Amino acid sequence: MNIHYAIKRSAGIIGICATLASAAALAQQKVEITNVWARATAPAQKVGAVYMDLKSPAAARLVSASSPAAAKTELHNMKLENNIMKMYPVEAIELPAGQSVKLAPGGFHVMLVDLKRDLVQGDTVPLTLTFEGNDKKRETVEVNAPVRALDGSTGMQHMH
Amino acid sequence: MKFDLKILRTLIAVVVVTLAATACDQPVGGKKFDAADITGAEFGKDFHLTDQNGKPRSLADFKGKVVAVFFGYTFCPDVCPTTLAELSGALKQLDGDAARVQVLFITVDPERDTQAVLARYVSFFNPDFLGLYGSAEQTKETAKEYNVFYEKEPGNTPGSYSVSHSAGTYLYDPAGRLRLFVMYGEGGKVFVHDIKLLLSE
Question: For residue A105, which residues of chain B lie inside 8 Å, CB to CB?
Answer without folding.
Answer: 78, 82
